[in-house]
Amino acid sequence: MKGESVELVESNSASHGQTVVINGQQYQIVSPSAMDSVISLHTGSGGNQFTSSNGGTVFLPSATSPGLSGPGSSPGSQAEEQARKREVRLMKNREAARECRNKKKEYIKCLENRVAVLENQNKALIEELKSLKELYKSQN
Fold it and tell me: What is the CA radius of gyration of the chain?
């Protein structure tokens, strides 16, 4: 875009991604694997802040400022707002999918435990049946 200045800021920690400055506004670029541990979202007037379980924080500034909001906002800012909303939605969807996979794993473990218990009960009952048959045969 015309008139934008883009600057890459060196980061000493690879786990938090890269920081890019565009027109004086800092953006942090984070890989999808680094975002797997997002645990909270804080929305403020300046934008959205995502905090991960490892303590890292990603700040996505709001695409519209108070002066640009309303029916007179430019198409570029509307596109930025849509892109930001999409990213937030995708992030929430990833978290929901992760929780669903974890619940499924837990459910399968419970079922496997139940199968093991029932198999042990079945073996015990078969042994009891055999011993009762032997006892019956010995009495006749």
Answer: 29
